[in-house]
Amino acid sequence: MRIHKEGYIVILIFGLLIILIDTAFYLTTKTIPVLYITFFAISAIFYFFVIRFFRHPIRTIINKDNNKIYSPADGKIVVIEKITEPEYFNDERIQISVFMSPLNVHVNWYPIGGIIKYFKYHKGLHLVAYDPKSSTDNEHTTTIIENANKKEILVKQIAGKVARRIIYYAKKNLKINQGDELGFIKFGSRVDIILPLNAKILVKLDQKVEGNKTIIAEI
């Protein structure tokens, strides 16, 4: 297990702050061992979870197949529904949404390979990720990927109530492979995948999925 590069500065800053706070707390409570030992233990557990949040598992798709849609994130399926997509396709599509809790891995991967035909970053609100309006009203990115068979899907990174920064590596006309890293969302959110109506859906609501491991649909 690696630490994601987006976490290096955050982990360093939190580490320095914890050292300063723990030292100050020790100097004011050193005559009460139980108190400062308890405080040190709590701060150590908190720091462990900060480091854990930025874990970056190595997951390689061995048998790549761009007609199979791999989950772009770890989490739980919270939406499978027909929608009218207003930004790019302007027609009816199937939306599958993966909710990432603060305990999930927060790396995002490309569910198929091909060419990025369209990309846009949208500023917005920070509604809870379960809110249906979060797909359009929250801060998010829109990435359109066209595979070798000229089939297009949309992948949307969405910031949530806690998530305050979306990291993205996509840009228009970039050639990408299935399973390459799409980006990272700091501190919890969701990813939407917008598919053609004739896509074969292979997951169910509330099912847990893993990025680059679980096949969620076929096109």
Notes on the protein architecture:
The protein has 219 residues and is α+β, with helices and mostly antiparallel strands. It has two domains: 2-56; 68-218, Glucose Permease (Domain IIA) (Distorted Sandwich). Helices cover 21% and strands 37% of the residues. The protein has helices spanning 8-29, 33-53, 134-137; strands spanning 2-3, 55-56, 68-70, 75-85, 91-100, 107-109, 114-122, 140-146, 152-159, 165-168, 175-176, 181-186, 189-195, 200-201, 208-209, 215-218. The strands form four sheets. Strands 11-7-8-9-13-5-4-15 form an eight-stranded antiparallel beta sheet. The protein has a three-stranded antiparallel beta sheet with strand order 3-16-14, with no helix packed on it. Strands 6-12-10 form a three-stranded antiparallel beta sheet, with no helix packed on it. A hairpin with a 5-residue loop joins strand 8 and strand 9. The radius of gyration is 20 Å and the shape is elongated. The model has no long low-confidence stretch (mean pLDDT 89).
